[in-house]
Amino acid sequence: xxxxxxxxxxxxxxxxxxxxxxxxxxxxxxxxxxxxxxxxxxxxxxxxxxxxxxxxxxxxxxxxxxxxxxxxxxxxxxxxxxxxxxxxxxxxxxxxxxxxxxxxxxxxxxxxxxxxxxxxxxxxxxxxxxxxxxxxxxxxxxxxxxxxxxxxxxxxxxxxxxxxxxxxxxxxxxxxxxxxxxxxxxxxxxxxxxxxxxxxxxxxxxxxxxxxxxxxxxxxxxxxxxxxxxxxxxxxxxxxxxxxxxxxxxxxxxxxxxxxxxxxxxxxx
Length: 269
What we know:
By secondary structure, this protein is an alpha/beta fold. It has ten helices and seven strands.
C-alpha cells in the first residue's frame, strides 16, 4: 500500500503577516464580541466581557472564584506527590506523540507519582491513560468551554473549572515536576507559567522537562536569543531540560526532587 503523504503545514516567514491579516479581516466582529448563545458557560463569559462591572457584580464573581478554589483545594488535598503533564489536545491515539505520552504516564505512575493533566483529549488523555492502565492515580482538571470539553475516560477523578487561571494554579500547586509534551499555544502558556514561577522563586525549584528534543529545539534557541539581547540572565537559561524518553523523565525527576518528597512515593508493584 502506498504510504499517505503528510500534509505540509509549514508557514514561511514572509507569509506570517498575510496569515495575521486573513485571521483578523475574515469577520466584521472580533472574537471579543462573543455571539449570543444559550450555552450557560459561554453566556457567562460574554457577560464578563461586555456587561457593566458594578461592585455588586464583581462581588458575585469573587464568590464564584472563591468557591471554585475551595472545591479544588478540598478534592486535591490528599493527592500525594504528583507530576503534571502538559500537551496538545490535537494528537490522537495512534500518533507517535500520543504513544510517547501514554508511556510517560505509565512510567510516572509506576514510580509512585500521581499524574495530573488538563483532563481533555489528545496528549492529556494519553498521559491519564498510561497512569490509569498501570493502576496509578490519574487526575483530570477539566475546563468548561463554550464547545464542551468532556473529561477523558482515563481519570480516577475529574475536577471541573470555569476559570482558566484557577485551573492553572491547581495544575502547578500540586506538582513537584512538569513534563511538557509537544503542544501549541496553550502548552506554551503552561510551560512559561511554570518556568516564570520557578524563575521568580515563587515555587520550587522543580524540574521542567521538554519531551522530544527535536520538537522543542526552537524554545532553547529563542531563550539563547533572549540571553544575547539581555532579556534573560545567564543563570536563567536552564529553566527546562530537553529529553527524549519516559525513563529519562522519571530518572531526572527522582534525582531533582527533595528527599522528603521521594520518601512519600509508593512505587507500583
